[in-house]
Amino acid sequence: MIDLAKVDHVYLYPGHTDLRFGMERMRALVGSCRVGRGERCVFVFCNKKERILKIFEKDGEGTWLYTRKLDGARFGWPETAEEAREIDKAQMTWLLMGLKAIGRIRKKPLAEY
Fold first, then answer.
1. Contact criterion met (CB below 8 Å) for 13 and 84
2. DSSP 3-state of 26
3. Assessment of whether the complete model's pTM goes beyond 0.70
4. Average pLDDT, stretch 41-55?
């Protein structure tokens, strides 16, 4: 499980990602992000149906790849780089619980909690 107390930054990857990608492809996607040496960062990706997240964590020793799936709801997900941003640890906790941590206007209705 992710220890958010030790994480320095949480970044959302905008748009939809093919989650069949493995560790190396995820590493290539986040390789363009400037991360300071020794910083512990988490990058969050979402699939097209917005029901599955893949979480890529870089720590001092290596990388972790986690998956989170919702059965009857959807994550609200940023479609463009302008909507995507760094989120705080509380928003990440909400996201892992399946709550809407990212507010945006959607074309399709989401399940209400």
1. yes
2. helix
3. yes
4. 89
